[in-house]
Design brief:
The chain has 116 residues and is mostly beta strands. It is built from no helices and eleven strands. Strands 2, 4, 5, 6, 9, 10 and 11 form a seven-stranded mixed sheet that branches. It has a four-stranded antiparallel sheet with strand order 1-3-8-7, with no helix packed on it. It is globular, with a radius of gyration of 13 Å.
Length: 116
């Protein structure tokens, strides 16, 4: 599985961005897709997850009510709509795919910077 994430940028606090993650290769083996983020000096943390074959979603408490994860299986693409962005959301955002056999794949990361 190959993942290409995009959509990051610089935005003012209160603004919005939409991240995309395009998957290719053995997409039929994917079970769960997630967005992680890593701020400078911090550990990588999960932001949101979505079941690839269903509708189940999970969000970190820090983004509930502001971020929405979604997917388009026909296009093999996952999205993260980020609203009401805060400076503390500044990080590199990575998409991740978990596949059958506990394989894990990562996108290259996209920078999100929120100015105050």
């Amino acid at each position: 599985v190959q993942l290409v994430d995009s959509g990051g940028g610089l935005v003012q606090a209160g603004g919005s961005l939409r991240l995309s993650c395009a998957a290719s290769g053995r997409t039929d083996s994917i079970t769960t897709m997630s967005w992680f983020r890593q701020a400078p000096g911090e550990e990588r943390e999960v932001v949101a997850q979505i079941a690839w074959s269903g509708v189940s979603t999970h969000y970190a408490d820090s983004v509930k009510g502001r971020f929405t994860i979604s997917k388009d299986n026909a296009e093999n693409t996952m999205y993260l709509q980020m609203n009401s962005l805060k400076p503390e959301d500044t990080a590199v955002y990575y998409c991740n795919a978990e596949a059958v056999g506990e394989e894990s794949y990562w996108g290259q990361g996209t920078q999100v910077t929120v100015s105050s």
